[in-house]
Amino acid sequence: MSLKNRNLVTIDDLSNGEIETIFSLADEMSESVKKQMNLCEGFIMATLFYEPSTRTRLSFETAMHRLGGRVISAADIGATSLSKGESIADMARVVGSYADIIVIRHPWEGSAKVVADYAGIPVINAGDGGHQHPTQTLCDLYTIKKERQTIKGLKIALWGDLKYGRTIHSLIFALAKFGADILFCPSPGLEVPEHIIKKLTTEYGGQLEKFEALDQTVKDSPFPLDAIYTTPSSPHQLAMMPDISIAVEMKSGVDALYVTRLQKERFTTAKEEQAIKKEYPVVDKKLLKGKLFKKTLVMHPLPRVDELAYEVDADPRSMYFKQAARGVPIRMALIALLLGTREIPIPIEDVSPTPKIDYPVYRRASGIRCNNSRCVSVQETEAKYIKPEFKIVDFKPLTLRCIYCEHGLEPQYIASSDWHEGRLESKKYHSADSHWVRKIKPGNLIIFDTEKEAQSRGFKPSSYVKRTRRKRLKKK
Ligand code: NCD
User: Fold this and answer.
1) Which domain holds residue 87?
2) pLDDT for 219-232, tens place per residue?
3) Is 347 part of any domain?
4) Atom 11 in ligand 1: residue holding the nearest Cα
5) Ligand 1 pocket, 56 CB below 6 A?
């Protein structure tokens, strides 16, 4: 196994063994940061940051300088040809012909995947909108591992903006991969998106217990616990032992509290932001006095705003500046491995499988598109060349996952491209909840958002559509 020439777009791109390899090389790098000047001599890294950044960009650039490489940089979308209407694919091709590795941050979800598809050199996602931020996750996991020696079996609480926080989205899957339990503590209205919960519970095993079932003692605490994910290897399976109260489950305390700021740049109106801001929970000395937090690592990807009091900085449990500092050796290790200037063979037995389900793929040039307005695939400049592509992750109800932003869609209508030797009377569309969804071979499936769309393509409603319409009318 080698990381040479690979991309890091989502945390799923790395197996546990590969993550451990990055950590052991980061250990080596941090012991001799100043002695690595020959490792990447002659290589160029392009840092393209089209959203604000301090830590991520500067630690990547420091890492490359420490490795003896050079850096070219574009940090303002307005100063690049993207503002003239150039597509991300064209930009990626061009930068790919100048540099040896690209680090990209961009507001559109799935944009890093497009860069990786077209650049022809290794690409690292430094944050694509609210989707993922896998290198921050490496710094977070590395910190937990350094402080607690293991991740398995720990209880990690995720706090604040779990809806838009991309560091949260990458961290959730990483924690599940390493066998930690996750406590979800969202600010009201900023719960983890449904498509992430679905992926977590179907692909990583484990159980999710929602708020309603939680013990009253926990509900009444200032700790805004909303749900608990227990990994399959957890000794306490809540769902299997419903009579065991959460208070017992929590007796060992919280191992890490991962605080995040309100991602205000993802809100569409100031009014919406103000309403949510009022209820945003704050981590301060008073909260950390609680029994639950006696040995808790207080973490934050930074920048902090109001959600984490400055008074916590002097507390030995605070970890956030260490997390940020560890960004340099982690990124040094990652760059050297992706460029192949350091190759560390990973024994096959250490490569614990990242859960992978071979979902059928749905890919048609026209028709259904991702319904996430922040997805790269629906932007005017990108929709000209990106073919919508989805994984069919469920048939009941029919659920698609966009391969770019990973949002879920539950389309209502389907048809088969194989309409019985071209006989017009059999050119019918059906409800997606009819048995046809399994009968039509995935390769022949045509999926529509609306009946209008099906009809505009010349399909007529089948009796299954009429039946569903009748059922819906009755319900009304
Ligand atoms: C995070 C990000 O950009 O997502 N910052 C970082 O990279 N350390 C977190 C944030 O901005 O809130």
Assistant:
1) 11-129+327-339
2) 566 788 888 998 88
3) no
4) 303
5) yes
